[in-house]
Specification:
The protein contains eight helices and no strands. The protein is an all-alpha fold and about 110 residues long. The chain has one domain. Helix 3 packs antiparallel against helix 4.
């Protein structure tokens, strides 16, 4: 599934979910769920970059220095663990994810 399609479906579900539960006081739940979704998106991007060279090149393009990019690209950690590293948070930060098409729960609910 392409990331554009994934973001489109995710936007539809998020809008429906927030509109359904809008009257409830769920600020902490929304923040936790938003963090989990962003981590999941980072994991999907990491999984999409299958080869080590692709991972390395994309991390360099997103502003990670060469040593850290090399270390992370060659890591044997699982996709989920890599998605929570500081390098992935810098490379795919919240503003970048919004620019790519992610509609955060916090921006709709609050």
């Amino acid at each position: 599934m392409s990331m554009e399609t994934r973001f489109l479906k995710l936007r539809q579900v998020i809008r429906g979910w927030v509109n359904y539960f809008k009257i409830a006081n769920m600020k902490k739940i929304v923040q936790k769920l938003d963090e989990w979704i962003r981590r999941r998106i980072r994991m999907c991007y990491w999984k999409q970059w299958k080869k080590i060279k692709t991972k390395y090149d994309n991390l360099i393009k997103m502003g990670i220095n060469k040593d850290k990019a090399y270390r992370i690209a060659n890591s044997r950690k699982s996709y989920w663990r890599i998605s929570n590293t500081p390098e992935m948070h810098i490379a795919l930060n919240n503003k970048t994810l919004e620019r790519l098409g992610y509609l955060s729960l916090s921006s709709i609910h609050c």
